[in-house]
Design brief:
The protein has 345 residues and is mostly helical. Helices cover 53% and strands 7% of the residues. The chain is globular, with a radius of gyration of 22 Å.
C-alpha cells in the first residue's frame, strides 16, 4: 500500500489537526540540473519523502517565463523527471508530476492575484535579478511569485524544501495566504489556507558555482549532476581560486573547492583536507582533482540508475501520470474550498 492510500484526503477542514506533514517543492525545466539543485533542494526533498506525503513537480508553467522553444521545454521536463527519479525520488512515496497537469493552479493564481498587493511583488528580488540579466519584463515574470504561491497553497503544504534563493517567494506565499484568510476566511474556522514553512538546509542553502557565486544555470557557472566525465572534470578544474602558491597555507573557509568537497566527502576526509589546506604544501590543482574524484564517485550509483531508467520510456510516463492523478485529487478538493470561500460557483 502506498502512502497515498494511508493519507487519503479528508474533505473537511480538520486536516489542519492531522498529524502528517505535506511536503511540496518544484523545479523548473529550464535547463540541465546541476549540483546546486541537487544539494539545495533535491537531496533534502528526497530525505523528506519518508516523513510525510510529498508532492514534487516540474514547474513547466514557470519555465515558460524564460524558455521559448517548445521542443526544449518538453525534453527538459522529461529529463528533470528522469534525473529526480535517478537521484532517489521514490514514486511510491512521493507524487512526481508536471505542474501543467494540474491546470487548476492557474485558476488559483488568478484568484490570489486579485488580492496580491503590487508593492509586495515589486519587492521581489528574483524579478529584479531576472530583469538585470536581460529577461523581458513580462507580466508572467512579474506574477511568477503568485503562481508559485498557488503551487504551494493548492496542496495545503506544510513544508517546502528549497534553497535560500526561494525564501522570499515563500514569504510572499505566506503573506498571500494571510491576506486570503483575512479577506475571505469565515467563522467558525476563519481560514482558507495553511501557512507553509520553508525548509532550508544551512549547509547547502547556497551552493557555489565554479566562479564562487551562487551556482545557477543562468550564470553559466554550473557543474551538472549528470554531465559527462570529461566536461565535469573540466568544470571542476576551472574553479576560480586565489593565487596562493603550492607551499602557502590556504583558507578553507573561503574556498569553493573546500565547500563543494564538504558536500560529498566523509567527516574524516573533510577534516584531513582542511588540515592540508591550513598546512600548505598542496596546490589548488591537487585539491580540485580530489574534489572531482569524490563528486564522480558520489553520483555513480545515480548515473547507473539513470541508465537503467532510460531503457524503459514508459516508466517515466507512468510515474508522471500517477503523480498527476494524486495531485489533481488534492487540488480539486482545495479549489472547491477556495471557490466557495470567494463566492465563485
Ligand atoms: P529552480 O528551478 O531555480 O531551482 C530548483 C531548486 O534548486 C534550488 N537551488 C539551489 N540551492 C542551493 N544552491 C544553489 N546554487 C541552488 N540553485 C538552485 C532552488 O532554491 C530550488 O529550491 N521557483 C522555483 C520553482 C518552483 C517552486 C514552486 C519551488 C515553482 N513553484 C513551489 C517550491 C515551491 C525555481 O525556480 O527553482
Amino acid at each position: 500500500m502506498t502512502n497515498w492510500c494511508m493519507f487519503a484526503f479528508t474533505p473537511n477542514v480538520d486536516i489542519l489537526h492531522m498529524s502528517y506533514m505535506r511536503i511540496l517543492s518544484g523545479i523548473q525545466p529550464s535547463g540541465v540540473l546541476h549540483i546546486g539543485n541537487y544539494f539545495g533542494m533535491m537531496r533534502p526533498a528526497i530525505a523528506l519523502q519518508a516523513e510525510g506525503e510529498a508532492f514534487y513537480f516540474i514547474a513547466d508553467y514557470h519555465a515558460l517565463t524564460s524558455v521559448r522553444d517548445p521542443t526544449m521545454l518538453r525534453e527538459n521536463s522529461r529529463r528533470v523527471a528522469l534525473d529526480f527519479l535517478a537521484c532517489g525520488l521514490d514514486p511510491e512515496r512521493a507524487a512526481l508530476f508536471q505542474q501543467s497537469d494540474v491546470p487548476q493552479v492557474t485558476e488559483l493564481a488568478w484568484i490570489l492575484s486579485a488580492v496580491a498587493p503590487m508593492g509586495l511583488l515589486e519587492r521581489s528580488h528574483s524579478y529584479k535579478d531576472k530583469l538585470a540579466r536581460g529577461l523581458a519584463a513580462t507580466v508572467g515574470l512579474f506574477n511568477y511569485p503568485v503562481l508559485m504561491a498557488a503551487d504551494i497553497l493548492i496542496y495545503d503544504s506544510d513544508v517546502v524544501p528549497v534553497g535560500k534563493d526561494q525564501k522570499q517567494h515563500i514569504e510572499i506565499t505566506r503573506d498571500l495566504a494571510v491576506k486570503m484568510n483575512e479577506t475571505f476566511g469565515s467563522e467558525p474556522d476563519g481560514w482558507i489556507f495553511k501557512l507553509p514553512e520553508p525548509r532550508i538546509q544551512a549547509a547547502t542553502e547556497v551552493v557555489p558555482g565554479i566562479d564562487g557565486q551562487k551556482m545557477s544555470k543562468s550564470y553559466g557557472n554550473n557543474i551538472d549532476i549528470f554531465g559527462d566525465e570529461k566536461e565535469t572534470r573540466k568544470r571542476v578544474m576551472s574553479i576560480v581560486t586565489d593565487s596562493a602558491p603550492v607551499e602557502a597555507p590556504k583558507d578553507p573557509s573561503g574556498s569553493t573547492i573546500f565547500q563543494l568537497y564538504s558536500l560529498v566527502a566523509s567527516k574524516d576526509e573533510v577534516a584531513e583536507v582542511r588540515e592540508q589546506f591550513q598546512k600548505g604544501g598542496t596546490g589548488y590543482g591537487e585539491f580540485k582533482k580530489q574534489l572531482f574524484e569524490k563528486l564522480w564517485e558520489h553520483f555513480a550509483p545515480m548515473r547507473k540508475r539513470r541508465e537503467e531508467m532510460l531503457a524503459d520510456r514508459s516508466y517515466i510516463d507512468n510515474v508522471l501520470a500517477r503523480g498527476a492523478e494524486r495531485a489533481n485529487e488534492v487540488a480539486d478538493q482545495v479549489m472547491k474550498r477556495v471557490r466557495s470561500a470567494v463566492g465563485l460557483r
